[in-house]
Design goal:
about 210 residues; mainly alpha; about 0% strand
Length: about 210
Amino acid sequence: MEAMNWFSTDLGQKVLLLSGQHLKLTFLAMLIAVAIAVPIGLLLTRFKNQIVVNSCLGLLNVTQTIPSLALIALVMVLLKLAGLSTIGVLPGVVALVIYALLPIVQNTYTGVKQVDPSLVEVAKAMGMTPGSILKKVEIPLALPSIMVGIRISTVWTIGMATLVSLIGAGGLGDLIFSGIRTVRDDYILAGAVPAAIMALLADWLLNLVQR
């Protein structure tokens, strides 16, 4: 009963609204990141030149070494040069997608490369085309590794999504930064606790999917 009363308060309603925004941001960013990263990871497995592969992975690794706020600022500058909006959901999602790419690309590449070569040879001997081998042998066997990458990226993205509220993307970061500005512990906790629970639940659910 007390929990229901709390959610009927001003702060409780804000938590519900901003949690929904946070989930939408995370889901949209992860959907785009998976759609980009998995094909890149698969494409890298087809390159014989290891220098090209290492260069691509190194370039993505740079996005992890850039501080989160600096990455958001860089995205804003790039979008401004492109004549696009630098405030709101667009720059927030772009920053989250960039941040989420590396684990998925890396785990997709590693998962496919670790497939037993003898299985691939057997598939070739059966007359399967390279495309069929990829779809029916390599991807299914690499799927656990790919899912690990998606799990890592999802947890990172939920945490990173609290920062994009600084550029008007919404989410639970609004409560956290509002609490910091006004020195209100209840606002800080109302933003931080749901974000932490969201990350733990996402990791648990994706672990179930992986199994």
